[in-house]
């Protein structure tokens, strides 16, 4: 209990500059932890929805029926994200272009791939949200804490120059409060760096799965486009 009170006293008695540094680091730490938890929940939900959609997609269901199910979900107010969003973008553009008789199979497929590419970029932006902030906290917090430490030590030695008797007890409080800034910088940086590395690896996995899905779905659409135009040429 005494150690905790002593630590609080050091923070309270620190210079204004060091206190400002501590406040910045504490705010960065709170924000980074909020974003760490928020990203954890979002990525876990995105993974579950991706697996559910993949299972539904490869179950042999009619693509038009799958698209209509998505419309019903959207009508109920449910957000459609991830792989299903990419599918809907591609299928919607495919259906629109397929109705235009002057469009050949290659043009239909190219238009569908472009729509899926745009949807893919949006999904990657959602996955990477907050990661730049975590990277910034992880890279800058130790230096901000070090600045507070250097400033606090300089303040202590300036006070020591005016003291009549220089002892360890004279400079120890000032050095201690300065070192707290370094500790707080590390406290803010370490979780942010670990979370950033972890989530960046997960985002890479998602991106690869999405890219693979775009290629596989494009192959399906390509076969359907060629079959559709072939039937039209035969007059069916």
Determine Rg (CA atoms, Å): 29 Å
Question: Would you report the number of β strands?
Answer: 0
Q: Give unreliable regions as ranges.
A: 1-5
Number of domains: 1
Distance between the termini: 86 Å
Number of helices: 7
Mean pLDDT: 85
Strand content: under 5%
Categorize the overall geometry.
rod-shaped
**Major sheet: size, sense and barrel closure?**
none
User: Which H/E pattern describes the elements?
Assistant: HHHHHHH
Structural class computed from helices and strand pairing? mainly alpha
- Fraction of residues in H or I helices: over 70%
Subunit structure: The Tol-Pal system is composed of five core proteins: the inner membrane proteins TolA, TolQ and TolR, the periplasmic protein TolB and the outer membrane protein Pal. They form a network linking the inner and outer membranes and the peptidoglycan layer.
Main location: membrane
Function: Part of the Tol-Pal system, which plays a role in outer membrane invagination during cell division and is important for maintaining outer membrane integrity.
Family: Belongs to the ExbB/TolQ family.
């Amino acid at each position: 209990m005494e150690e905790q009170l002593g630590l609080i006293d050091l923070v309270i008695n620190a210079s204004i500059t060091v206190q400002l540094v501590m406040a910045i680091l504490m705010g960065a730490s709170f924000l980074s932890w909020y974003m760490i938890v928020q990203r954890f929940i979002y990525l876990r939900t995105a993974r579950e929805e991706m697996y559910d959609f993949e299972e539904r997609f490869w179950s042999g269901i009619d693509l038009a029926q799958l698209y209509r199910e998505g419309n019903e979900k959207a009508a109920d107010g449910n957000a459609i994200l991830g792989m299903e969003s990419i599918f809907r973008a591609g299928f919607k553009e495919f259906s629109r272009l397929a109705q235009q008789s002057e469009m050949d199979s290659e043009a239909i497929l190219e238009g569908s791939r472009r729509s899926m590419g745009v949807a893919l970029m949006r999904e990657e932006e959602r996955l990477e949200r907050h990661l730049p902030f975590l990277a910034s906290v992880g890279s800058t917090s130790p230096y901000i804490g070090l600045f507070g430490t250097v400033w606090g030590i300089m303040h202590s030695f300036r006070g020591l120059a005016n003291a009549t008797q220089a002892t360890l007890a004279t400079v120890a409080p000032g050095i201690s409060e300065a070192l707290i800034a370094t500790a707080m910088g590390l406290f803010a940086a370490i979780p942010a760096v670990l979370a950033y590395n972890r989530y960046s690896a997960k985002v890479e996995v998602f991106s690869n799965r999405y890219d693979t899905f775009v290629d596989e779905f494009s192959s399906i659409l390509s076969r359907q486009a060629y079959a559709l135009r072939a039937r039209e040429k035969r007059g069916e």
